[in-house]
Amino acid sequence: MDKKLKFLNYQSEWIKFDGRFALSEKSRRTGITYAEAYRMTRKHATKKVKGGKSWFTSADLSAAEEYIDYVAYFAKVLNTAAKYVGEVVINKEDDVTAHRVRFANGQECNAISSNPTRFRSKGGDITLDEFAHHKDQEKMYTAAKPSIMWGNDVRIISTHNG
Question: 62: which residues sit within 8 A by CB, 6+ positions away?
Answer without folding.
Answer: none
